[in-house]
Design a protein that fits this description.
Elements (H helix, E strand, L loop, with lengths): L1 E2 L2 E2 L7 E4 L7 E5 L2 E2 L1 H18 L3 E7 L4 E2 L1 H16 L5 E8 L2 H9 L7 E5 L4 H9 L2
Parallel strand pairs: 4-6, 5-7, 6-8, 8-9
Antiparallel strand pairs: 1-2, 3-4
Length: 137
C-alpha cells in the first residue's frame, strides 16, 4: 500500500494527499477500499497539522471511487469526527466534496448540517471550481 509517498506491497493508496490545491486548502484523493491505516497515516495527521497552524481548516475531498470501508476505518472516521469535528468545530471553514458517486453526494447533502463549517458537493467535472470555492474565492 502507498501512503504518504511510501509503498507497502502492490496496492495503491486509497486516501492520499492531493498536491495541486490552492494555498491554505488541504486536499485528499480517495479511491478504492478504505482502511484504518489510511486515517492513521494520511488523513488524521494532515488535519491535525493544519489545525495546529491556526488558520482554519479548508478541505477538499476528491472521491473517485469507494469500494468498501473497513469497520476499523469507520471507527477511525468517528474518532476524527469527534476529535477534530466536535472539539474543534470553529476551526472548520469550508469542505468541498467532489464526487460523481450519486449516493455519496446525496448523503453528504442530506447530512451537511452535521459537518462543521460550510460544505458543498461538486461533480468531478467541477474540480477546479471546487478548489476555488474551498479556498474562499
Amino acid at each position: 500500500m502507498m501512503l504518504s509517498g511510501l509503498t507497502c506491497g502492490s496496492v495503491a493508496a486509497v486516501i492520499e494527499p492531493l498536491a495541486d490545491t490552492p494555498p491554505g486548502v488541504l486536499g485528499f484523493r480517495v479511491a478504492g477500499e478504505i482502511h484504518r491505516e489510511d486515517y492513521d497515516t494520511v488523513l488524521t495527521p494532515a488535519l491535525k497539522q493544519a489545525l495546529e497552524s491556526g488558520d482554519g481548516l479548508r478541505t477538499l475531498y476528491l472521491i473517485e471511487s469507494l469500494d468498501k470501508m473497513d469497520p476499523s476505518a469507520l471507527w477511525a472516521d468517528a474518532k476524527v469526527g469527534y476529535d477534530l469535528g466536535i472539539r474543534h468545530h470553529d476551526a472548520w471553514v469550508r469542505s468541498a466534496i467532489v464526487t460523481d458517486i450519486d449516493w455519496l453526494a446525496r448523503a453528504t447533502r442530506l447530512f451537511a448540517w452535521m459537518i462543521p463549517g460550510e460544505v458543498r458537493v461538486f461533480p468531478v467535472a467541477e474540480l477546479e471550481p471546487a478548489k476555488a470555492w474551498a479556498a474562499g474565492a
